[in-house]
Structures are given as C-alpha cells and as structure tokens.
Amino acid sequence: MVSVVYLLLALVLSLLIIPQAMRIAPILGMLDRPDPRKVHAVPVARVGGIGIVVGAVIALLFAVTVDDLVFSYILGAIVLFVFGMADDRFELGHYTKFIGQFVAVGLVVFVGDLYVTRLPLIDQALPEVIAIPFTIIAMVGVINAFNHADGLDGLAGGEALLSLLAGAAIAYWSGDLVAFQIALVAIGGLIGFLRYNNHPARVFMGDAGSQYLGFTVAFLAVELTQVADSALSAALPLLLIGLPVIDILTVFYLRISGGMHWFKASRNHFHHRLLDLGFVHAESVVVIYSVQFLFALSAVVLRYHMDTVILGVYFSILVVIFGALIAAERRHWRVHQRSYEAVGSSDKGGHPFAAMRQLPTLFLLILVPAYFFYESAVLPSVDESWLGVIAILSGLLLLGCAVFADGRATLLSRVGAYCGVLLMTYGDFLQSDALSKLEIAYFAVIAVTVVAAVQLSAQEQFRTNPLDYLIGMVLIGLLMFQEDFALSPGTTGLVMKSVVLLYAVEFLINRGRSQAQMIRTSLGIALGWVALRSFLG
Fold first, then answer.
1. Can you tell me the distance from the alpha carbon of 233 to that of 92, in angstroms, rounded to the nearest whole number?
2. Which of 96, 163, 412, 508 lies at 20 to 30 Å from 263 by C-alpha?
3. Model's pTM, two decimal places?
C-alpha cells in the first residue's frame, strides 16, 4: 500500500507540471506542427515528457535507496530527458540522439553493472565481450522502438503503460522492490500525462517522454530476467516489450526494400497502415492497445514457461496480426462504419424508436441514486467520523456549482461528485470485505446500462475513447490476478464499483442540465445524511 503512495505522487506531479509546461511551450518553441505525415491538424505542445519524467524521478527518489543501479538509471533518464528536450526544441538529427541514448544505456551497463547474460534457447552464459555490446544495442533499439511508436494520440503512452503494468506485476511477484518502484513511478507519471493526451490530444510527450519510457521498459526487461529472478524465461522481454519492436523492424524492412533511408520518416508504421485501411484515429489506437494487451497478458501468464513456448506464442501473435493486415491491404479491404452523426440523427423527426434512447438514462437516474441513498443509511454504523468530514466537503463542492455560472461550476460539480462516489464505495468496503451476489448483479446492471446509454446517446459530450478501453483492460487484468496480488474480494469490488459509478455519474453530468441536477441533488442529500448521522453517532 505504501508503494502506491509514490505512484500517486508521480501522478499528481505530472498532472500539475504538464499544464504549466503547456502554457510556456509556445515561448520555448516546443510545438509539434502539422505536416503530411502526421495526423494532427493544429500545432500541439511537445512538453508532456516533462511531467512524466520529472514526476517519476522525484517520486523515485523518495521511494528507494539510491545505490549504483538506481543512480545509473536516474542519471540515464536525465540524460535522455535533456537530449529529448533538445530534440523537441531544435529537431536534432538521429545520430545526435544516438549519442544520448548510448550514454544513458552505457551508464546502466557500466555503472549499474546491468547487462544480459542469458539468451533464449542458449544454456551457456554469454561472455562479457558479447553480453555488454548486445545489451547496449538491444536497449537502444527498444528506446527507438517506443520513440517511433509515438504517432497517434495516446498510442505510445498506452503501449508503454501496458508493458510497465506487466513489468510491475512480475517485479512484485519476484520480490524486486527496486524494479517494482521504478515501474510504479513511471506508471504514475504516465497516467498523469494520458489525462491530457487522450484524443484529441492537448499535449504530446515528445522525445523527452518516449525515450524515457522506452529506456524504462528496456531496463525492467533486463533487470527482471537477468537479475531479479533467474527462473523467468530469457525470452520474456519479447512479450514485455510487445508490438513496438516488431513494428520498428517492419518499418526498417519496408523502407530498405523500398529504396529509402533507414531513418527517413514515412507512413508505413502499423498505425499508419490501419488508418489507410479506413480505421479512424480512435479505432486504430484501440486495435493496437488490444494487441499490446495480449502481449502483456501473455508475459504475466507465461513468465515461467519454456523459451520455446514464449517464442511460439510471440511469433504466433505476430503471424496472425500481420497476416491479417497484409491480406486486408492486398484485397483493398476498407472499414465501413456508420458515423456518430448518422446515429444521432436517425431517430429524429418523430421516429417511433426515438424515446427508446432515453430508457437507459432513466434507469441510471433510478439505480445510481438508489445506491447513494442505501449507503447513506448504513455508512455511519462503521463509526468513522472522518467520513462525515469528507461528506461535508463533498457536499459543499456540489453546492458550489449553484454559486458559479461559468466553467468553475462544472469543475466543482465533478470534484464533489467524484469525492462523494469514492466516499460511498469506500464506506461500503469498510462495512464488508466481501461482495454479495446481489451487489455483483446490481453493479453489473449499472455497467450494462451505462454502455447502452453511451451507445444510444446522440450527444458528443460523452463518447467512449481509447483511454476507456485501456482502463477496461487494466481492470480485466486486476480481476484475473487478484489472488496473485493477495487482494481481497472486497478490495477488487471497491475498485470495480468505483469505476462503474464514476462512469455513470460522468455520463449523467454530461447528459443534460436536468439529469446533472438530479444526480447532484440525490448525491448531495445522501452526503448530508451521512454527515449528520456520522456526527450524531
């Protein structure tokens, strides 16, 4: 639990730093301007890496004791950060960036004494004369793989997040506290960045962020398989790193076979090819998230299996994915998807099914307040007076939305609602550390109703996006491995219920003024009742 505090510290620092960096990005000249190869149409600040790296490094200094390995990692991250910032500002050439990458990796290898000694299918340890150069080249390759994967909003960040989560899980089970903390703080900084990088992105991570993430994933892959647990398969890094490496190798092959320079920018990355098949931006990102999730999940499940099994799984996934892609390209297959505008307008003009679109929203306006009122009646029995304090503060924030008529009202409404939801679910967790079948069924109905309401809604204020799918993948992983993490059913239930309710409340706040007022009022009444009974005993 203490380790999560450092993740939260990195997350908060990232959330606080990035908006300030975005304000000064034009002054610093750190804007990514559109060109024919890129998919964004307006200039976007390339300063997200500042929040990711600064947040993660500061949190890490509090989390672990700095020995030679940690020192070399932090110094390497700083070197990559400086070179990345310079590239984001001055557009350094590839060979100049290689200098920073080789210096950063060299620090880990020579100062941290971390390098590959085991390779898949080879029983004998590698001699240093081979192991050290191989490690340097391999880690630099991974850095560039994640750097080149940063082509769509949320893409490189989501891929790295899945790799880091898998790495954190394996580090936790292997008892490697240093690797676990390094993964956690990187996850925290990255989550803070993804808040601003979801499509349409308000900020890009730039080379400062993508190189750091690639460096961290490569570091974890080597540390876990070569030092932390020798029982882990030597082929495991392939699954941990996942799609970015094979993507960059494929791009190099296509460039060379097409008579192009290795490092000449082109539109033959995996995400470019999905876009050319007609997938929209968000769909392309979700497809790639799904592939990377499959790799990360396989890494966790197969971590102790034979090298041949892991290699077989890895290349089988690649054959299926790229085989389907090549077949679609050769047959000129295109995705045909009905637009949101068509969906929103199809039931207008008195269509007999138009009213059906309102039913899921009406169900939510019954189910969600009912839970709030029920919990407000039973929470005080846990005799936690601080629940009453939080209830009062959350209620005041909800009340504040009636005072302001501008954007501050929406902000106050959300903060108050989110705090209120978390109070209710946490108080429920304090009451019982087990989920009843009735609770599971109740929240399953809410979850299905939210999905139906979102899909049937003609409004654009609340649409599912790649980040939602990413959260869903993480929750699936949590459910699958809750026993491995020694999580009680109540803890898992706390997370699930919180996520479902937060999505439901967010949808209702965006749905319309009357719906927003109803959910705020019901939650405010419930919070007031919690506060009153908490202090009266």
1. 38
2. 163
3. 0.79
